[in-house]
Write a structure and sequence with these properties.
Elements: H1 2-108, H2 113-116, H3 120-123
Length: about 140
Amino acid sequence: AANEANQKGWCDKALADAKQKRTTAAEEIADLNSKMAELEALRDKLAEELAVLSDEISELQQRREEAAKIRDEEKAENAQTVSDATAGLQAVDSAITVLKRFYGSAAKKTVDLALAQQSPMDDAPDAGFDNGEAYRGSQVTSGG
């Protein structure tokens, strides 16, 4: 009987330990399942963000390429503008040199002031009557 009592005590203790382990394991499984569900939700959220960010990266790369193309076109246009401005500066410098030469030599020349002060009436042909006098035509041929 003492052996049986020992055996029963041992069995009861082993059964209580097994129930405790089962309860603890079930709680751990529930915690792990909860954490796994949270992590799966986080994974799904991150997958969505990754897709959105991938689209944004593609769009930004396209915009960067367009901006680089525009920048290259503007660079070429600016280079042409600088080239045109340089050519214009050379043309203006050349024109200034020609004008200085022309006006420098013209300043040394003289002008006949008698010609400059001549009236337009001096060159006009004789009208056959004076200013203020009425024109009467040819009186000899008119018989009247």
